[in-house]
Design a protein that fits this description.
This protein has about 190 residues and is of the alpha/beta class. Helices cover about 25% and strands about 20% of the residues.
Length: about 190
Amino acid sequence: MTRRFKGALQALLAGLGAVIAFPALVLAAGDRYSGGRDDGFTLGAQLLALVPGVIGDAARGAYYGHTLALFETGATVHFGSYFSKRGARVHARAGIGAYCVMGLVDLGSGVRIASRVSITSGLYYHGSAAGGIGGEDNVTRVVIGANTWIGEGAVIGADVGADCIVGMGSVVIQTVPDRSTVIGNPARRVPSAA
């Protein structure tokens, strides 16, 4: 495939994605008049999560490029996945698999997230085992460092450093240092072989 043809195809997909995303962007824009609620943003995000294929990826990219705090070129959000918080930041080349829910998160460049991953808005957003009350007062940004891989079905509630691997099904409740591999529930660091 020639470079010119590939560029034209990418421009066509981006244009189709923008057309599909337009009604959702109108919904999100209506939030200015809703007294600080993000109902339109959430509805638009969930509707666009259901658009399949590369056109759906382009529509989600167009939507989040206009609604999130940051959504850099080359980032991808696949089918069934959506962001629940406008303040999320997604850096270049970050990829989010199918059926993921992202809260208030900062995804570093090159982050790869498998399917069915949940990144909450901190450990206490939905309350705690000790009976704490959850909600908007307990929102905390979760930072995932550059080039980190997060495995299938993981639940992340705390920061994960750069160049890390989070094993499938792991539940991260403590900060993970750079260049670490963690597995399990709760996630524990795997000692390096060196």
